[in-house]
């Protein structure tokens, strides 16, 4: 067996993973609530919070990519066949692409509507798409479609992580466990 | 000779005749703040007439009619919402109207109007400075007028909450009309 620390993601990666997971699930749930509400003060307030959560995901993603490139990435369990490993990597790549595309599509939609995006009420983000109501409607559907893909990918991701941990008994969850090396029981 | 004289008189009095505004070149934009974030909208159909000769500004007057149904906001939802009873109640109050009572020269191409603005059946005194410029055959009036939306009951019930939509709305008017000779 390799030394325990080698089989784990670096602490900053673990932290970013769970922080972003919370933000994404929250942004998604608030997004669904927004979808269900008619135009009302509550809907506007939720949209405001939703946008900041989504932009936070975008900023953390940039940090996460840097940390991942700079830190140790534990190899996948040796019992996985090359094809399984390839699929796992493709799944992770899809997650990264969607974590970028989903908030970007939201930002693009707002921009095309001509509604400024102000991160946490202070940082005025650039409007990078000219006001265009038709395009805005299309981007709204793109945001929905990408969100559906993201949700399916996240469900698949969680399913396989749990399957590895509880059926294959390969300690998969320990790779991303919060709380440092002392929690390495396996 | 008689018809010629009549025509002369007509031409001579032209500056005092009200000129219908050029609806295609005129626009009314407004900026409102939604949770501190500025948002633009406009009214696309404006009618009315303006009489304004810079040399004789005190005789000037304007009477503008804004079609509420021509409102446009960033999203289709918001555009539809603003025609509802809580906002403009466009069915009961299809137009807003501005009628000036006086126009004062402020020097140069700057003037100040006072008048009455009627929105949603409520009339309030308003006054704002504006500039007058010539663009080809058109005279163009440009200015801004801050109004309190709540003074006109625009946004009632849950929408009266000014944390969501601020009370003050900045109206920007750009009115073009044929220049008198
Ligand atoms: C991880 C980031 C994000 C997730 C998971 C997410 C998720 C969602 C979901 C599930 C919906 C409901 C579907 C819909 O109503 O169309 C939604 C709606 C919305 N999202 Fe996002 N979103 C994210 C980022 C953003 C960002 C960064 C913005 C803008 C800056 C944004 C703007 C919006 C808006 C305006 C709506 C309402 C669309 C409508 O009017 O129906 N989102 N989002």
From TrEMBL, chain A:
Its cofactor is heme b. Gene3D superfamilies: Transmembrane di-heme cytochromes, Chain C (1.20.950.20). Residues 8-176 form the Cytochrome b561 bacterial/Ni-hydrogenase domain. It is a multi-pass membrane protein. It is found in: Cell membrane. The chain crosses the membrane at residues 15-35, 47-67, 87-104, 141-162. The keyword Membrane applies. The keyword DNA-binding does not apply. Keywords: Cell membrane, Electron transport, Heme, Iron, Membrane, Metal-binding, Transmembrane, Transmembrane helix, Transport. GO terms for molecular function: electron transfer activity; heme binding; metal ion binding. It holds the Pfam family Ni_hydr_CYTB. InterPro entries: Cyt_b561_bac/Ni-Hgenase (IPR011577), Cytochrome_b561_oxidase (IPR052168), Di-haem_cyt_TM (IPR016174). GO terms for biological process: respiratory electron transport chain. GO terms for cellular component: plasma membrane. It comes from the Bacteria. Belongs to the cytochrome b561 family. This is Cytochrome b561. It comes from Paludibacterium purpuratum.
From TrEMBL, chain B:
Residues 18-178 form the Lipid/polyisoprenoid-binding YceI-like domain. Pfam families: YceI. Residues 1-18 form the signal peptide. It comes from Paludibacterium purpuratum. This is Polyisoprenoid-binding protein YceI. The keyword Repeat does not apply. Keywords: Signal. InterPro entries: Lipid/polyisoprenoid-bd_YceI (IPR007372), TTHA0802/YceI-like_sf (IPR036761).
């Amino acid at each position: 067996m390799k030394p325990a620390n080698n089989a784990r993601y670096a602490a900053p990666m673990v932290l970013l993973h769970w922080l972003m997971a919370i933000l994404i699930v929250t942004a998604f749930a608030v997004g669904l609530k927004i979808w269900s509400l008619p135009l009302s003060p509550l809907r506007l307030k939720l949209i405001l919070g939703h946008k900041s959560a989504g932009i936070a995901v975008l900023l953390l993603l940039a940090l996460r990519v840097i940390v991942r490139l700079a830190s140790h990435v534990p190899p996948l369990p040796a019992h996985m066949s090359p094809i399984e490993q390839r699929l796992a990597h493709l799944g992770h790549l899809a997650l990264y692409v969607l974590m970028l595309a989903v908030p970007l599509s939201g930002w693009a939609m707002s921009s095309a509507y001509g509604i400024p995006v102000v991160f946490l009420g202070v940082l005025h983000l650039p409007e990078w798409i000219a006001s265009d109501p038709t395009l805005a409607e299309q981007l709204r559907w793109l945001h929905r479609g990408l969100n559906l893909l993201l949700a399916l990918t996240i469900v698949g991701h969680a399913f396989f992580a749990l399957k590895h941990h509880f059926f294959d008994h390969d300690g998969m969850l320990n790779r991303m466990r919060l709380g440092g090396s002392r929690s390495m029981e396996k | 000779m008689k018809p010629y004289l009549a025509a002369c008189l007509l031409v001579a009095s032209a500056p005092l005749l009200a000129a219908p505004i050029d609806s295609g070149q005129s626009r009314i934009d407004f900026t409102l703040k939604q949770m501190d974030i500025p948002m633009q909208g406009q009214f696309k159909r404006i009618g009315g007439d303006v009489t304004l000769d810079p040399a004789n500004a005190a005789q000037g007057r304007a009477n503008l009619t804004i079609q509420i149904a021509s409102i446009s906001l960033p999203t289709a939802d918001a555009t539809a919402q603003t025609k509802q009873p809580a906002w403009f109640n466009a069915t009961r109050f299809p137009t807003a109207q501005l009628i000036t009572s006086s126009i004062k020269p402020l020097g140069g191409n700057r003037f100040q109007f006072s008048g009455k603005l009627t929105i949603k059946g409520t009339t309030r005194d308003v006054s704002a400075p504006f500039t007058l410029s010539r663009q080809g055959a058109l005279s163009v009036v440009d200015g801004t007028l801050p109004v309190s939306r709540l003074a006109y009951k625009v946004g009632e019930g849950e929408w009266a909450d000014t944390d969501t939509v601020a009370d003050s709305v900045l109206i920007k008017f750009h009115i073009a009309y044929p220049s008198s000779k």
